[in-house]
Amino acid sequence: MLKFNAPITTDVLVVGGGIGGLCAAIASAREGAKTLVAEKSDTRRSGSGATGNDHFACYYPKQHGEDIGVILKELRQSLVGAYHDEKLSLRFLEESLHVADLWHEWGINMKPFGDDYEFMGHAYPGRPRIWLKYDGHNQKQVLTRQARKEGGEILNHHPVADLIVANGEIAGALALDISRDEPSFTVIRAKKVILATGTANRLYPAAGSPGWPFNTAFCPACAGAAQAQGWRIGAKMVNMEMPNRHAGPKFFARAGKSTWIGVYRYPDGRLLGPFVDKATRYVGDITCDVWNSAYTDVLLNGSGPAYIDCTQTGAEDLAFMREGMISEGLTTLVDYMDRTGLDVSKHAVEFMQYEPHIIGRGLEIDIDGQTSIPGLYAAGDMVGNFRADIAGAAVYGWIAGGHAGRSAASATLADAEKSPWVEERAAFYSRFMERKRGAGWKEANLGLQQIMDSYAAAGPHRLRSATLLTAGLKYLGDLRKNSEEQIKVNDAHSLMRAIESLDLMDNGEIIMHAALERKETRDMHRRSDYTFTNPLLADRFLTVRRQGGEVIKEWRPRWNA
After folding, report:
1. Segment 203-222 mean pLDDT
2. From CA 472, how far away is CA 478, in angstroms rounded?
3. Within 13 Å, how many C-alpha atoms sit on residue 77's CB side?
């Protein structure tokens, strides 16, 4: 078996050093709790927010007025608002300005246009704009610095492999030390644990380049770890059957479509949507936030492709767009345009719909960010009943971190390293290193993508059914068994990737179980055997959890404010 390092003890363990994790760590440390961030990579350049962002959902009474309900409605009707528990959305909006103020104070430029906040992008004409435009190119470095300034400790190159429970409550985690070629284990004892591991990517074949799983619009190292780890200890998952598909430049796999200042057109010049005929920096073309499947639809019906047309955009707004792309972290796109002579004032750019991934679907949390497992919290893209992307991760990281830090004072530590679960999981992962020969982790990951694409496909124009999903669960079980028996790795990095692939299989299993239970067609979940949208399910959420080898499926009402 791989060796164990000395155990580490902390009050609050934050799993993942992305936006949500770092904000949680700062808030926890401010409450006086000893706080540790366990990060897979390096917090200065990790996660989907690694290279920047430029839109932050926020309620600003000075511009929006005193009726927060108006902004709550806009959030619910935005591209991120479909699967919210309303009371969580309201709590988010109430805290959002405070977190934006803190970010600006710490050194992230939230006011790049003067002395006040500006709101633009992802907006309907004539309606309130709720997305604060900011310059986030340095956000990870700033938040890393602030976490350390507040007294938080950061343990880079230590992805968490499993959570540890004692007497029904969270007790810590089993981390994998990948700082050297030869991996080792570290048990982290903690009173409270906050999961903040981001999206679940690499579940489906990359739309722009099948077979090249790392060409994704979101961080490819975000592999649904929180959902998988929570699933294995019985935490409730919610809305996992409802996949998400983003969009952006064709084959380039770079998100950030609201940063583009242009309108969407058919090849003959007709507008794709009815909202604007000329885009500005304040109100762009929201068509594809509303008609999410547009790029795929127009290809399959023969009327496409669809293009973003910036040729009517003025020179000042084009320069503004370029700066926005840098803030958003689209520097490779800017570099490509410079190297190839792509001039968006002359050339329209084809857009495409990217592969399905899991964002805003996963662990169910309450108003304070707590999951169904006592002592376990979650914040960010792997939360299943609230989503607001960067802003959501930041604000709910702040909420969860503050609550965990305060409550840790009255909690006790368990001897996590003595759990039989630790020995079992360490032996299981060690076998991948100990084998003399075997298959690579990438084969397992690509096999999973083929199964998900064939038997649990996401819309548009792709259907699920009871027969397909049942077959998919059987094949996924076969793949898991073969992978566990055959994967062979030679170093710490490959072992990490193998664990990611197995975590993704857990995500696939959750998706299929939930998709079987949702007997209707809704959004990207399209059933050939239940072709209609059931209005009785419009305000109900589906949770799934694993208990003693049995999958428990439950429907509950949406939590209103």
Report:
1. 93
2. 10
3. 13
pLDDT band at residue 239, thresholds of 50, 70 and 90? very high
Spatial distance between the Cα atoms of 139 and 108, rounded to a whole number of angstroms: 6
C-alpha span between 453 and 205 (Å, rounded): 7
Query: What 3-state DSSP class applies to 484?
Result: helix
The answer to whether the CB of 489 falls within 8 A of the CB of 478 is: no
Quick: pLDDT tens for 58-90: 999 999 999 999 999 999 999 999 999 999 999
Burial of 92 (0-12, 13-18, 19+ CB in 10 A): buried
- What is the dihedral sign for C-alpha 380, 103, 262, 251? negative
Q: Are 123 and 132 in contact (CB under 8 A)?
A: no
Give the contacts of 53 (CB within 8 A, at least 6 positions apart).
Answer: 134, 136, 139, 327, 328, 329, 389, 390
Helices (H) and strands (E) in the chain, counts: 15, 17
Peptide bond into 267 cis (omega under 30): no
In this prediction the pTM is: 0.97
CB neighbour class for 331 (10 Å; exposed up to 12, middle 13-18, buried from 19): middle
Is pLDDT above 80 for 561?
no
Residue 334: how many CB atoms within 10 A of its CB? 14
Q: Can you tell me the mean pLDDT for 291-320?
A: 95
Average pLDDT taken over every residue of the chain: 96
